[in-house]
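Folded chain entry —
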Amino acid sequence: MSLDNNRNTLAWHETLEVHELVASQAIGLMKLKAGIKNVRDSQLKRIYRKSIQELEHNIRELVQYYPSAPIQPQREEPRQDQSGFQAGELLSFCKASVRNYAIAITETATPVLRQTLTNHLNRAIKSHGDIFHYMHSKGYYPAYDLGMLLKNDLNNAERALTMPYE
């Protein structure tokens, strides 16, 4: 991996985008690896395997950019408690819900449906805030400490990449 000749570090906003991708893909990878054993259809199982391999490839490529982040994360021993992972999974779901409802609202012409979706969006925003504040208070999401945030990403990425499946 080589950065632009004029820069040897990522910009802050690029770093945060890479963080979002690594964080969500690591959670998705762990979910796929945990769930593949329950897939009975052989064609679907092949698709799961391919998705697992693609996510592993993506994560490996993205974590190569972490040494170029404006703050250098240090790896540490991952926590044994599953609460951080479970909370991250819910946070990821809530964030996707907010995005999905916001997009759906822009496609809605019927006023009563638009209001229903707006109500759902507001509940999704509240749920996202609730889980974010829980994670932040427990130290699972150090949103104001980029070094810790990236360190958590590397730990979760390593956990996802080394997690056995099948």
In short: Residues 73 and 151 are 5 Å apart (CA to CA). DSSP finds five helices and no strands in the chain. The mean pLDDT is 91.
